[in-house]
Specification:
Helix content is 61%, strand content 0%. The longest helix has 22 residues, at 214-235. It has helices at 10-15, 18-23, 26-46, 54-61, 68-81, 84-95, 126-140, 142-153, 163-177, 184-198, 200-209, 214-235, 241-247, 271-279, 284-289, 293-299. With 301 residues, it is mostly helical. It is built from 16 helices and no strands. α5 crosses α6 (84-95) and α11 runs antiparallel to α12. The protein starts with 9 loop residues before the first helix and ends with a helix.
Length: 301
């Protein structure tokens, strides 16, 4: 088989320079991850995470480029873990054993802190499901290019028929939301059912703070979360993840902290402040709606 028997993007083959191809290569992407993990660890050490040692940082600095041998480890691990980022972390820990347990601390797959990626431990096939969505989005937008080409060759005539559906949509939205009733007790009940899963990232971070490896903590959370979901789905039980954690000695270092980490207010960030600032009486939304005030008042129920 030659290169003429395999698909190759004509954009890369005909138009991309060697440097551009290198920048977008798998090795460059994976090596960039390693740089990000190093920078994250350096910043976390700077703000006081004592478990990140100088020796760990030196190990990361010495292994910033992903070797061919590391790629073999990554390929094998991904077959087992079915998670690319976790497989890369495992390979880096083998290259830099002094950094084992501190790589990726406090970060999601996109290096943003405390956004709940590790809470996906309770989900089934999260990575593959994300890929399915991405591929579906890619496929659904392929026809957009052809439509754009057609519209540029044949200037479209805007038809007044475009307007009624838009107006109808707004009328229906107003009808559905007008007089809406909120049930706080029901909201709290549903929130409490999911809250233990939402809090798992905080559990992991608290364990790491106690000196436990993030990867070990993530795996133990994943196991208990999957057990919890299984009984919820097959037996109709309530979410008993917290009870399971309180019976597992692995989590003993944080048993006394669990209840305090389940306060719903810990998971809303600045949302209340943002909503009030934008939608409150002196916010910009009220100013935008002022000229429609009479109509809004006349249709309110």
């Amino acid at each position: 088989m030659t290169k003429h028997d395999e698909y190759e993007s004509p954009l890369a083959h005909r138009y991309a320079s060697r440097e551009i191809k290198r920048i977008f290569s798998p090795r460059e992407r994976a090596s960039t991850w390693r740089k990000l993990w190093l920078w994250l660890a350096e910043a976390e050490k700077e703000i006081g995470l004592t478990q990140i040692t100088d020796k760990a940082l030196e190990g990361l600095r010495s292994n910033l480029v992903v070797s061919d041998e590391a790629y073999q480890v990554i390929a094998e691990e991904e077959r087992i873990r079915r998670h690319d980022a976790m497989s890369h972390i495992f390979a880096l820990e083998k290259d830099a054993p002094d950094a084992a347990g501190i790589i990726h601390i406090g970060a999601t797959s996109c290096y943003a802190t405390q956004t709940g990626s590790s809470a996906m431990a309770f989900k089934s096939n999260p990575m593959r499901s994300e890929r399915i969505c991405s591929l579906g989005r890619k496929l659904s937008n392929i026809s957009t290019n052809f439509s754009a080409t057609f519209s540029s060759r044949h200037p479209p005539n805007r038809h007044p028929g475009d307007v009624p559906p838009n107006r109808a949509l707004l009328i229906l939205l107003d009808d559905v939301t007008n007089g809406i009733v909120v049930f706080p007790a029901m909201i709290r009940s549903q929130l409490e059912e999911e809250l233990p899963f939402m809090a798992t990232e905080n559990f992991i971070m608290k364990l790491v703070h106690k000196g436990i490896s993030r990867q070990d903590a993530h795996e133990r959370i994943r196991v208990l979360s999957r057990q919890t979901v299984e009984t919820m789905k097959t037996q109709g039980t309530k979410n008993d993840l917290i009870e399971r954690i309180k019976k597992d000695n692995f989590f003993k270092p944080i048993w006394d902290d669990l209840d305090g980490m389940l306060d719903p207010k810990l998971f809303i960030g600045r949302s209340a402040e943002i909503v009030e600032k934008y939608c409150g009486s002196s916010g910009p939304l009220m100013g935008k709606l002022e000229k429609y005030r009479d109509y809004i008042n006349s249709t309110a129920t």
